[in-house]
Design goal:
Aldehyde Oxidoreductase, domain 4; binds dioxothiomolybdenum(VI) ion; globular; alpha+beta
Length: about 750
C-alpha cells in the first residue's frame, strides 16, 4: 500500500500529529527534575575524577606533586602521563572527518591553556578537587601566541568539516573594475565558547570489556564507534546513553579528551567514574567558535546590481589540528552575482581546537557579509532591503542550480510588514525615541543549508493498537523528542498519546547526527519510513483477509489514521489495528526505515532554509549603551512539524544573534594565553532584559524535493541574519560602522 501514502511529487501525506504546536513530550520530566542528565547517574561504587588544567598555553609540564595528591584522604589514584593506561587508538590521529585530535595525557606537552595535565580519582568530588589542586603543576613555559596577528598562517586543505577552502566563479577583478560603486571592508569576529547550561559530563563504567557511558552526545553512533576504537573493543561492547542533553550547539557532536580520561580512570580503578567539567574548564578542551577576520570587496553597477563579490576569511585554529570556521562560504549562495570568490586562510595559535558551533561558518560569515552589503547599499543610496531584493538570487549563485524551494521574497515582505520597515529614513541618526535615545533599524538575510545525513529507525504496531518507535535520536533541548514523535505517530497512523518513543541510546537504530540543522529531516524521514513499512504490512494482511472490511481494497488503497485503516475509496469501511492483528493472531508488526537524501534531487537542486531578520536598536547618545529593542525574523524552512518548537528554535537562534552582535567574546590574555573571562561572570550572554521583544514568523513553504516530508531545518538559521541586522541597526542609529564583534560601547564612543 506504499503508493497510497505517497504524493506524486514525492511528498508523503502526514497525518494529524505533524503540524500541531503541541508542548514538549518531555516538558513535565524536565520541570519536575525527572529527566536524567549524564551527571545525574550514580552507579554503585562511583568514584569522582577531577583533572588539573594547565595554567600555561605553551610548553611542558615538568613536575606534578603526585605524592601530595595521593596522600589526601579519599584520593584513590592519580593518573599522569607516567601511568596512564594504553589506548588502542592514537589520540593524535585524525581517523575520520568528525574526529578531533584529543589530549589524553599522551605526553608532557602543553598545547593551550586549560589542557588536562593529570587526573585525580577519589571517593568524593571534594577529595578529587582538592587532590587536583595539590598536584600544583610546574612548567617549562614558552611565550604563547594566541591572536590572529601573531599566529602562523597556512593555506588549508579544507574548512569546516571537509568543505573546499576556496571557490571561484566569473572574473572578480573585472567585475570590480567595471563597478560603478565599490566597497572594501573588513570585519572581525571573536572566539566564542559554547557554554551550554549542562557542562560536559560523563559517567563511565566497565563490566569486563563492556563499556557503559552516560554522556551527552549529538552523534551517538559515531561516538560509540570512536569510544570502541580508543579502547580496542567492538562497537557493540559500548552502550552510550544520552537521553537528555542540556544544550549541545555542536560542542557535544565531537569527542573530547576529558571523556577519554574518565573512561581510562574507570579502567584504572575498576570502578565507575564520573567526570564533570567546571564552568571554567569549558574554556579549552571542548571546542569553540574560532575567531575570524574577514575582508570583503563588493562591486555594484549604477542600478545596484552586484558585479562582483569577494569574501576572504582568516580563521584561527590550534597548533595540532585543523578545524577552521568556514566563514567565507556563507556568501556563496545568497546574492546573485556574475563573479564571486571565497578564500580561507588558516592561522595557528596556542589555543584549543575550535569546532562546529551553532551555524559554523554561516554565523560569522553572514555577520560580515550582511554588514558589507549594508555598506554597499549605503554607497548607492538605496534602502538596504531594496538592495537585497535587487540582488535576489533566483537560482543558486554558486552552482546555478534551481533552489528546491525558496520563499525568501515572502520572508522579506512579511518580516518588513510586521516590523514596520516602510518609512525607514535612509540616512543614519534620524530617529529618536521619547527618552531621547537614538533609534536605528537594520536588516539581514538569513540562510542555512538543508542537509540530510543517514538514519535508521524501527517501528512497531502492537496488538492493542498502540505503537513503538525506536531510534537513537538526540534531544538536546531543541525539541527532537516531540517533533520526531509527531512524525512517528503519523507514520504509524496513530494518535501521539498512543505512541511510545524511545531515543537517545546507542542500542537503538542509528538516528544519525543531531547537527547541521538536519536531524528532523533525516531522523524524521527514517521514522516515517519505518512506520509506513509497518502499516504496509498491516494493510497487506487486512486486504487479504476475507473477514476484514478492507478485504480486496488492494487497488483502491487504504488510509491509516487514528489506529484504523480505512478504504481510500469508501471510508465507511474500516478496521482497527487491533482487530486486524487479533484476526491474524499477531502480537506485533514491525517496520524498518531509513532516512537519506534522494541523490537525484541532491544533484538537481540547491537546498537551503531562508529568512529575513529586522532589528531595532536604541542607543544612549551620551553613554552609547546599546539595547536591541525589537527583533522580527521571518523564516521559510519547508514543512514545519511543530510551529511552537520551531518558533522556539528560531527565537533562540535570534537571541544568540544578539549575544554575537553585542556580548559574546572570549578574551585571551596575550601574556599567558589564558581566558581572562572564562566563566559566566565574565563571558556575557544575553539575558531576558537584553531581549525584550523577539518574534519569529513562520512563512509557509512547500518543498517537493528536499525530502519526502518536505522538511528543512530551523536549528541554526536564526542566528545567521540577526547579527548583521543588529550591527546595521547600530550603524543606522549612530552613524558609526563598527568592524569588530561584539560591538562595544567603546567603539561607539570613538
Ligand atoms: Mo551544530 S554546530 O551542527 O550542532
Amino acid at each position: 500500500m506504499a503508493e497510497t501514502l505517497q504524493f506524486p511529487t514525492g511528498h508523503v501525506r502526514l497525518g494529524s500529529n505533524a503540524g500541531q504546536p503541541i508542548t514538549r513530550r518531555d516538558g513535565a520530566l524536565k520541570v519536575t527534575g525527572a529527566a536524567t542528565y549524564a551527571a545525574d547517574n550514580r552507579p554503585d561504587g562511583l568514584l569522582y575524577a577531577v583533572y588539573a588544567a594547565s595554567s600555561i598555553a605553551r610548553g611542558r609540564v615538568t613536575h606534578l606533586d603526585v605524592a601530595a595528591a595521593k596522600a589526601h584522604p579519599g584520593v584513590v589514584e592519580v593518573m599522569t602521563t607516567a601511568n596512564r593506561p594504553p589506548l588502542a587508538r592514537d589520540p593524535d590521529a585524525k581517523v575520520h572527518m568528525f574526529s578531533w585530535r584529543l589530549e589524553a595525557l599522551q605526553d608532557d606537552r602543553v598545547r593551550y591553556a586549560g589542557q588536562p595535565v593529570a587526573v585525580v580519582i577519589a571517593s568524593t568530588l571534594e577529595a578529587a578537587t582538592e587532590g587536583a589542586r595539590l598536584l600544583a603543576p610546574r612548567y617549562e613555559s614558552e611565550a604563547p601566541r594566541t591572536g590572529l596577528d601573531d599566529g602562523e598562517a597556512f593555506a588549508p586543505e579544507a574548512v569546516g568539516v571537509g568543505a573546499p577552502p576556496s571557490f571561484d566563479k566569473g572574473d572578480v577583478e573585472a567585475g570590480l573594475e567595471a563597478a560603478a560603486h565599490r566597497v572594501e571592508t573588513q570585519y572581525e569576529t571573536p572566539a566564542q565558547y559554547h557554554n551550554a547550561l549542562e557542562p560536559h559530563a560523563i559517567v563511565a563504567a566497565w563490566e569486563g570489556d563492556h563499556l557503559t557511558v552516560d554522556v551527552p552526545n549529538q552523534a551517538i553512533a559515531i561516538a560509540r564507534n570512536d569510544f570502541a576504537s580508543f579502547f580496542g573493543i567492538p562497537p557493540e561492547n559500548v552502550t552510550l546513553r544520552s537521553p537528555f542533553i542540556g544544550g549541545g550547539f555542536g560542542s557535544k557532536a565531537i569527542l573530547n579528551g576529558p571523556q577519554i580520561l574518565c573512561i581510562l580512570a574507570a579502567r584504572m580503578t575498576g570502578q565507575p567514574v564520573k567526570l564533570v567539567l567546571t564552568r571554567q574548564q569549558m574554556f579549552g578542551p571542548v571546542g569553540h567558535r574560532g575567531a575570524t577576520r574577514q575582508a570583503l570587496r563588493i562591486g555594484t553597477d549604477a542600478d545596484g546590481r552586484l558585479t562582483a563579490l569577494e569574501h576572504r576569511a582568516s580563521a584561527m585554529t590550534s597548533r595540532f589540528d585543523d578545524f577552521l570556521e568556514p566563514a567565507a562560504n556563507a556568501s556563496q549562495n545568497i546574492y546573485a552575482t556574475p563573479a564571486m570568490r571565497q578564500i580561507h586562510t588558516g592561522v595557528r595559535a596556542d589555543i584549543g581546537t575550535p569546532g562546529p558551533m551553532r551555524a559554523p561558518g554561516e554565523a560569522s560569515g553572514s555577520a560580515a557579509l550582511e554588514c558589507a552589503m549594508d555598506e554597499a547599499a549605503e554607497a548607492l543610496g538605496i534602502d538596504p532591503l531594496e538592495f537585497r531584493l535587487i540582488n535576489y538570487a533566483e537560482t543558486d549563485p554558486a552552482s546555478g542550480k534551481p533552489f528546491s524551494s525558496k520563499a525568501l521574497r515572502q520572508c522579506y515582505a512579511e518580516g518588513a510588514k510586521r516590523f514596520g520597515w516602510a518609512g525607514r529614513p535612509l540616512a543614519p541618526r534620524q530617529m529618536r525615541d521619547d527618552a531621547g535615545h537614538l533609534v536605528g533599524w537594520g536588516v539581514g538575510t538569513a540562510m542555512f543549508p538543508a542537509p540530510m545525513f543517514q538514519a535508521k529507525a524501527r517501528a512497531v504496531v502492537r496488538e492493542d493498537g498502540s505503537g513503538l518507535v525506536e531510534i537513537s535520536a538526540v534531544e538536546m533541548g531543541q525539541g527532537a523528542l516531540t517533533a520526531l514523535a509527531q512524525i512517528a505517530a503519523d507514520g504509524l497512523g496513530i494518535d501521539q498519546d498512543r505512541l511510545e518513543f524511545r531515543a537517545g541510546n546507542s542500542e537503538l537504530p542509528d538516528g544519525g547526527v543531531a547537527g547541521g540543522s538536519g536531524h528532523t529531516a533525516t531522523a524524521g524521514s527514517a521514522i516515517f519510513a519505518a512506520g509506513s513499512d509497518a502499516i504496509r504490512k498491516l494493510a497487506d494482511i487486512a486486504t487479504e483477509d476475507e473477514a476484514s472490511p478492507l478485504f480486496g481494497a488492494g487497488n483502491a488503497g487504504v488510509v491509516a489514521r487514528g489506529g484504523r485503516l480505512y478504504r481510500a475509496d469508501d471510508e465507511t469501511r474500516s478496521a482497527s489495528y487491533s482487530d486486524i492483528m487479533a484476526r491474524a493472531g499477531l502480537a506485533e508488526i514491525e517496520g524498518e526505515g531509513t532516512g537519506a537524501r534522494n541523490p537525484a534531487n541532491a544533484e538537481d537542486y540547491a537546498m537551503f532554509s531562508h529568512g529575513a531578520v529586522f532589528a531595532e536598536v536604541k542607543v544612549d547618545p551620551e553613554l552609547c549603551q546599546i539595547r536591541v529593542s525589537r527583533l522580527v525574523g521571518a523564516f521559510a524552512a519547508g514543512r514545519i512539524i511543530n510551529p511552537r518548537l520551531a518558533e522556539s528554535q528560531l527565537t533562540g537562534g535570534m537571541i544568540w544573534g544578539i549575544g554575537f552582535a553585542l556580548h559574546e567574546e572570549t578574551v585571551l590574555d596575550p601574556r599567558t594565553g589564558r581566558p581572562v573571562n572564562g566563566d559566566f561572570a565574565g563571558y556575557h550572554i544575553p539575558v531576558n532584559a537584553d531581549a525584550p521583544s523577539v518574534e519569529a514568523l513562520l512563512v509557509g513553504e512547500d518543498d517537493p524535493y528536499v525530502n519526502a516530508l518536505g522538511v528543512k531545518g530551523v536549528g541554526e538559521i536564526g542566528i545567521t541574519g540577526t547579527v548583521g541586522a543588529i550591527a546595521n541597526a547600530v550603524r543606522h542609529a549612530t552613524g558609526v560602522r563598527v568592524g569588530r564583534f561584539p560591538i562595544h560601547i567603546g567603539a561607539l564612543l570613538g
